[in-house]
Amino acid sequence: MHATFVIGMLLQSSTVAHAADSWPSKPVRMVVPYAPGGPVDLIARPMAQRLTEALKQTVVIDNRAGANGNIGAELVAKSPADGYTLLMGSKSQLTINPLIYGRSGFDPARALAPISLIASSPSGLMVHPSLPVKSLKEFTALVRARPGKLSYASAGNGSANHLAAELYKMLAKVDLLHVPFKGGGPALNAVVGGQIEVIFISLPLTVPFVKSGRLRALAVCADKRAAVMPEVPTTAEAGLPGHESSAGVGLLGPVGMPREIVARLHAETVKALAQPDTRDKLVAQGQEVIGSTPEQFVAVIHEETERWAKVVKAANVKVD
Fold first, then answer.
1. Ordered structural domains, the chain, with CATH
2. pTM value?
3. What is the rounded distance in angstroms from the CA atom of residue 109 to the CA atom of residue 97?
């Protein structure tokens, strides 16, 4: 599916290669395709500060929210491949969006070149504490006893937490009612407030609610326990192997950037992530710091696209 995407990343355009030696000679724009204050934005800002220091040119944050990240991503994809317009995007833009927005004519996984997967945070299965369950096993038994009676909240049709819940339904062979909201904040608030019973959502967002007893964490959707909630078992430990879902944030640019610029951006990104203050800021948000190579980022995209394609097809997921 992404052969063009991989080739476009590796075979950088020679027409702009001559500019690599003098790059950057002016400010660099970092597009964040989500609203200020969200998880991606909170990673972008310390990274922009560090890159500003390293490149000796201002890296300016430009928030362009809309269409589940596609508006900002398309803006970057259509920009000159000269290293002056970058994207701090989410992994779901590259793995889920192409599956559900295919008819839009824009495929971010083909139009963007990965530079580094910066950080990742697992999703967690959260329930309102009024639900009489203390474990994933008990929850699954309750759902089976009440098919179609319990509801899960999501940030909207085709969102990452929508697909995480559908993956759970597939693996556990249960029936849950989907209640989509317009954004992750309202969805989380509905579960905290008790209007909806269940949500699969990025773990860092839930920490204060779990600590205060307003949410109960049943499982971490990852292959290892999370540092922010080490007492919560993984889905595999809780009896549901194969259920993994995480929110990743990475740096990308338009396909065709000179390889020298890609290499410089990757190197400076890794250096920034190695600095204690930057790392500490991300860890405090519940993020696992990664700093992958472009090739490793590509491999993650391919692997997760295959996983979510099966879920999208089986659940017949469609956007509004």
1. 3-121+246-315 (3.40.190.150), 123-221 (3.40.190.10)
2. 0.84
3. 9
